[in-house]
Amino acid sequence: MAYILKKQPSAAAGSRWLAALIALLGLVLTTSQIGYIFKTGSALCLNGGCAVVESLTRLPPIFFNMAGAFFFLVLLICNQLAENDYGARNFWSRAASLALLVAMAMEGVLVSFQSQVLQVWCAYCLIIFACVFLLNLSFGGRQFLLGMAVFAAVVAASLSLNYTSPWDVSGGQRGSYGEIVRPHAAIKARLYFSAACPHCEEVIASLNEDVSCQIGFYPLDTVPELSVAGLKKNPHYDSAVNRALLQGLGLGEVPALVAREGEEIRVVIGKDAILAFLERCRPAPISSGLFSQGQFSTPINARNGQSRIVDSAENTAEESCPVGVACPPEAVALPPARR
Fold first, then answer.
1. Residue 41 and residue 140: Cα distance in Å, rounded?
2. Helix (H) or strand (E) holding 73
3. Which residue from 116, 130, 171, 219 has the least number of CB within 10 angstroms?
4. pLDDT, mean of residues 21-45
5. Backbone φ and ψ of 199, nearest 5°
6. DSSP 8-state class, residue 90
7. Residue boundaries of the structural domains of the chain
């Protein structure tokens, strides 16, 4: 194998031209995104997966795009300064090869994060990954094999870690107070709530043994004993995990329901919207006006990242509570739980 790599033919001038074209395309994309962020204050998302990835990163998207623009600019400069033969062991060709290997390692991290943690795909991120992939290919067979080896090593290391996906609503993670267990349920959901939210209490009080969905209870603070039919409790839950997750998703109000049905995931906020959605878990589901009220519902296709936000036509302040703020207890008269 070492002999084959050593004897790998050098890239032709056409490959140099192709590498310059790809690097220029990447530079245009990233600088255009930077300009769009400066103008609008937010990144241009090609699909719902882009918005999800953006909401769960610690740094603003402009920093990632600035780093990408700098990378493609460096590749353009190195490509022009290197000799026509990439096989020549000069400084500029080595610098370009090293930059491409670092880029492949970073792309391995981002791809693993989207596939294992988010389970949604950012279309813009995939376009940038395609540019880096093609750049490695245009720099010759040896560079391509080294780049793929680095990428595979990063992905393999990521696969060895036990990530908890924010969309994995089927298991008993450490943030769960307990679950209404329905192993064969078509809908599996998480209910995020607070002890100081009377609207949350009303949603919880509506749940009974007739519920056919598997529902997990994820409190944002320490809650008193819940009395829900069929609830399998977890005595060692960690509410801090739930607060961090909601913050990462950009959700600032409870009750909030994250529900998965097949490949689709919905985020529903507000008492009325959640109660309407939960009618699908009753023996006689109501199909009309599911999301006529409530703050928003965001369906996300976990396979292709497509999303759609349905904004409410009315004020929902009376049916949800801001996270960390106690709602007045007299705001809601709780109905008795259904039995």
1. 40
2. helix 61-81
3. 171
4. 89
5. -65, -35
6. -
7. 2-159, 178-331
Instruction: Judge whether residue 301 has pLDDT over 50.
Output: no
pLDDT computed for residue 144 by the predictor: 92
pLDDT in tens, 266-293: 888 988 999 888 888 876 544 444 444 4
Q: What is the SS3 assignment for 216?
A: strand
- CATH of 2-159 among 3.20.20.80, 1.20.1440.130, 1.10.10.250, 3.40.1390.30: 1.20.1440.130
Of 152 and 234, the one with more pLDDT: 152
AA letter at 316: T
CATH number of 178-331: 3.40.30
Grouping H, G, I as helix, E, B as strand and the rest as coil, residue 6 is helix
Distance CA 234, CA 232 (A): 7
In this structure, the strands spanning 231-233 and 253-254 are unpaired
Residue 298: pLDDT over 50: no
Burial 132-171 (b: 16+ CB within 10 A, else e): bbbbbbbbbebbbebbeebbeebbeebeeeeeebbbebbe
H or E stretch at 239: helix 239-249
Q: What is the DSSP letter of 161?
A: S
State the pTM of this model. Answer: 0.52
Residue 175, token pair as written in the block: 């943030």
